[in-house]
Amino acid sequence: MSNSTKVITGKVRFSYVNIFNARAFQQGQDAKYSICLLIDKKDKTTLSKIKAAIEAAIQDGISSKWGGKRPANLKLPLRDGDAERAEEAPEYAGCYFLNANSVQKPGVVDKDLNEILDATEVYSGCYGRASITFYPFNSNGNKGVAVGLNNVQKLEDGEPLGAARASAEEDFADSRPDLNNSDNDIDFLG
């Protein structure tokens, strides 16, 4: 793998953060660490580095994985958030996105390069940078370029993504059961 396939992003937004514990998404799959990177379409520097790395991975795949030619239905990792996700997930609007994963735990640091050990510090919605590597694959008839996750740097907090979740105290505050009420002893099978 050459350095031409490695990219250190500019500031991106993190989504689907799974970088502290490996997880298998389907039964029988290997557990992996993963993250989705939302890249602002205005970040031309990061996007040009990513596009160059994808092209380098394609050239590597032509010579090492795909029999000397570019496959017709090549799967590429950089996707358009406006076209694919903006309706159901507004945070994808105005962004490209890609998913990166690794079987090895990525290094995770803060803006001052101090290791982050608390998994709650890096979450879907915060901002940071990522070290990623693009590589060709040929698996089960699928050919394309995938993204390996190397390391993550959190730069700043952001609005958490996903459904707002109420605390246990909020959920149960207005419905304290009367444990002495005989209605709790109803025989439903009666």
Short description:
With 190 residues, the protein is α+β, with helices and mostly antiparallel strands.
Report on this structure.
There is one protein chain. The protein is of the alpha+beta class and 190 residues long. The chain has one domain: OB fold (Dihydrolipoamide Acetyltransferase, E2P), CATH 2.40.50. It is built from three helices and eight strands. Strands 1, 2, 3, 4, 5, 6, 7 and 8 form an eight-stranded mixed β-sheet that branches. It is globular. The termini are far apart. The relative contact order is 0.21. Residues 160-190 are annotated as: Disordered. InterPro entries: Enc34_ssDNA-bd, NA-bd_OB-fold. This is DUF2815 family protein.
Features:
alpha+beta; OB fold (Dihydrolipoamide Acetyltransferase, E2P); 3 helices; 190 residues
Helices and strands in order, then pairings?
Layout: E1 6-8, E2 12-23, E3 32-40, H1 44-64, E4 79-80, H2 81-84, E5 95-102, E6 107-109, E7 127-139, E8 142-156, H3 168-172
Parallel strand pairs: 6-8
Antiparallel strand pairs: 1-7, 2-3, 2-7, 3-5, 4-5, 7-8
CATH C-level label: Mainly Beta
Poorly predicted sequence stretches spanning 5 or more consecutive residues: none
* Distance N to C terminus: 70 Å
**The CATH topology, please?**
OB fold (Dihydrolipoamide Acetyltransferase, E2P)
Summed over residues and divided by their number, the pLDDT gives a mean of 89
CATH architecture: Beta Barrel
What is the 3D shape?
A: globular
Q: How can the largest sheet be summarized?
A: 8 strands, mixed
Radius of gyration, in Å, reads 22 Å
CATH-level-4 superfamily name: Nucleic acid-binding proteins
What sequence of helices (H) and strands (E) makes up the elements? EEEHEHEEEEH
SS element count, helices: 3
Number of domains: 1
Q: How many E-type strands?
A: 8
Protein name: DUF2815 family protein
InterPro entries: Enc34_ssDNA-bd, NA-bd_OB-fold
Region (Disordered): 160-190
Pfam families: Enc34_ssDNA-bd
